[in-house]
Amino acid sequence: MKLKKLHRYKKMKLDDCLKAFSGVFGFDQNTLESGHFKGTIFRFPLRQEETKLSDNIYDKSKVDDLFMSFKDEAPVSLLFLKCLESITLLREESESKTGYIGEKIFSVCIDETTIEAVRSARKDMRSQIQGLGNTLPSDPIANSYNMKINVEDDARNATCRSWKVMNLFQGENKMSSTLQKLSNDGSLSYSPYVGVAMDMDCPLDLKGHVFCFLPLPLTEKSLSGLPIHVNGFFALSQSRRFVKWPTADQIRNHTHTDKSIQWNKALVIEVLSEVYSSFLQELVKESSKYKDLNAHATAVSQCIPNTIEVDEHWRILIPPLVKKLKNTKIFFTTNKGGEWISKDQAVFLRSNKIPSGHGVESTIRKILEMYQQNTVEVEDHVWETLELQEQEEVTPDFINRSFFVQIKP
């Protein structure tokens, strides 16, 4: 209902409305008359005394705790939203003043250098999805964009993080019959929509989180164990704190037939693996923008999951992801000035497998460079996750076979 039409609603007393909101962040009589307020106000009537329903009373300290918990989530809260571009926490405790909207205690916003590109990508995908009505697209609808997010606290301390985001609404032509059936199930009413985001500053301590457009409550341990954030139209637990997965008893007795659990599994196996694979390949394509290709190669490597660290429920992602990446050029070699190659073109080098001491490692590296080998330095987790055990690797046997000829008397 529009603000300026509130007086037409018989059950609404304008005086009560003004009493509740007057002076709050600039809301006044003129707001009602003009029908316009720059922003959105949510009014939460917090319990101030015990009732039969609950004895949980909210005082100022608990509200402050809510603010603090939001501060923890705020830096990533805008990543997967469809419209919002900024969120500001304000505190107004005294009598309101004309034009006074309170003391800013925290803000998070999309940086002006990327906001137009983000806004355009979001709008385009949103309009395509809205145009579908209640049907599924024949082909996938996708977008991707780079996004800088600024965070500022009450002490004017500001930080800026750079993110890459990709979203995918899967098309029927790329769905299994199971996912098609679940997508059209009216009792579920979910969309085959998944997004991923990576911090391009590549912090080693990044814990991939799970979103259902907004982040699920933060926990000490990563909910997924993945090195990137994942957003999706997931079926959640009743508390909306976790993605629904089968319990240990259900797995043991093969009784996990709940359609919402089937949906989450299909979404991860089919849609998440697709967008994850596309995300990695786009990272590779964008490497031409970077002067330091080695640093960008590190970002690609960090984006690959470590199977050991991935939560047991999310490990169903690994096989389809590995299959999709099988013949892709996601491995970087410094040979020929630097290029991306497939695993069959590479000679993999794991530094912890080379004998140390007496200059052995540096000598081997010089030999590989001299003979222009497509050497790819690879972390152990990449070696294991992408199942590279059958590929050519730098070993003493490889050195002997490739570079030394036995001299016969």
Write a structural description:
- Helix content is 32%, strand content 16%.
- It has 12 helices and 12 strands.
- The strands form 3 sheets. The protein has an 8-stranded mixed beta sheet with strand order 1-2-3-4-5-8-6-7, sandwiched between helices. Strands 9-10 form a two-stranded antiparallel ribbon.
- A hairpin with a 4-residue loop joins β3 (141-153) and β4 (158-169).
- The longest helix is centred in the middle third of the chain and has 27 residues, at 259-285.
- The model has no long low-confidence stretch (mean pLDDT 87).
SSE order, as H and E? HHHEEHEEHEEEEHHHHEEEHEHH
Mean pLDDT: 87
Helix run count: 12
**Helix residue percentage:** 25-40%
Q: Looking across the biggest beta sheet, what order are the strands in? A: 1-2-3-4-5-8-6-7
* Radius of gyration using CA atoms only: 27 Å
Properties at a glance:
16% strand; 409 residues; two-stranded antiparallel sheet; eight-stranded mixed beta sheet; 12 helices; alpha+beta
In brief, what are we looking at here?
The protein has 409 residues and is of the alpha+beta class. The protein is built from twelve helices and twelve strands.
Helix and strand topology:
Layout: H1 14-21, H2 29-34, H3 60-77, E1 86-91, E2 103-110, H4 115-130, E3 141-153, E4 158-169, H5 177-183, E5 193-199, E6 210-212, E7 214-215, E8 229-232, H6 248-253, H7 259-285, H8 293-303, H9 318-324, E9 331-333, E10 339-341, E11 347-349, H10 360-370, E12 375-377, H11 380-385, H12 396-403
Parallel strand pairs: 6-8, 11-12
Antiparallel strand pairs: 1-2, 2-3, 3-4, 4-5, 5-8, 6-7, 9-10
